[in-house]
Design goal:
single chain, about 280 residues, mainly alpha, 11 helices, about 80% helix, about 0% strand
């Protein structure tokens, strides 16, 4: 037992020493790794906020089966959003800025009051918080552009905007189908605006997308959304639409994570493993 403990302790010390040596001899690579880490953490929180929007909407629609998952997601968000400033605020000023305080203030208001909102207002308020996170990602991309490289920085600025418009189409479209087309005009208008914006952003970023199949899947999803907008009673099953949109959104999250985590040949093998395994990345 003592031998096992000694062996594990020795490995841990060696890893720590290796990390210190690497940081001393490769300062730019270490800074780049840390920049990627905070971008991934923030991206994960954006995805969790989108999940919270969908779950809370379902609960407001009477689907109590989602309550436990919603509570777990809400607890995770509450803990993680406030941890960002304490963990990363020293090196990333955006988490000490008024812009970040606005995001937190909107989240606190939402967390305390969403149960008293109607379905439409709940989704709109969630959208304000998520757009705030998209703005934070844009600031991180700008502040760390030299470390990330121009291509990765541009991806962080543009792709999350597309992902949020797709999230809006998923949430509102699902509600529209569940109500058999019986929804307020603002639902249709919101979907039309997001569909148009998503299509334009996709055209603008097409040259930066490494996966042509993702573009094809996104075009199909936008066509499906248009069909629902034009005729909500076209026979589309809500579950089918939800699944299609989720596959597309998760594909974009997967691509952006892969682009950010492209292995750097200046890193040692153990450092590459640490960069990957140490990231708090949520499966898409």
């Amino acid at each position: 037992m003592a031998k096992v403990f000694f062996k594990e302790r020795t490995k841990a010390l060696a890893s720590e020493v290796g990390q210190r040596v690497f940081e001393w001899t490769h300062p730019s690579a270490t800074r780049r790794q840390r920049a990627v880490e905070i971008c991934l953490v923030t991206l994960n929180l954006m995805q969790d906020l989108q999940l919270h929007r969908g779950l809370s909407g379902a609960v407001l629609d009477g689907e109590s089966v989602f309550t436990s998952e919603l509570d777990a997601t809400e607890h995770k968000l509450q803990r993680s959003l406030y941890a960002l400033a304490s963990h990363y605020g020293e090196k990333h000023p955006v988490f000490r800025s008024p812009q970040w305080r606005i995001v937190l203030g909107r989240w606190e208001s939402l967390r305390n009051n969403w149960r008293d909102l109607d379905f439409y207002t709940n989704l709109e308020v969630h959208g304000d918080v998520i757009i705030g996170m998209v703005g934070i990602l844009k600031v991180l991309a700008t502040d760390n552009a030299k470390l990330l490289g121009a291509e990765k920085a541009e991806i962080l600025k543009e792709w999350p905007r597309l992902m949020e418009h797709l999230g809006i189409l998923r949430a509102w479209g699902l509600h529209l189908l569940a109500r058999n087309g019986d929804a307020e005009e603002r639902v249709i208008k919101t979907m039309q605006v997001s569909r148009s914006a998503a299509g334009q952003i996709m055209k603008d970023v097409a040259d930066t997308v490494p996966d042509p199949a993702a573009l094809s899947l996104t075009r199909d999803a936008l066509l499906h959304a248009r069909a629902i907008i034009e005729n909500p009673d076209n026979g589309t099953e809500p579950q089918s639409y939800y699944a299609q949109m989720t596959v597309v959104i998760d594909r974009w999250y997967g691509m952006i994570r892969a682009c950010l985590q492209v292995e750097d040949e200046t890193l040692y093998p153990w450092q590459k493993r640490a960069a990957t395994q140490g990231m708090p990345v949520k499966a898409g």
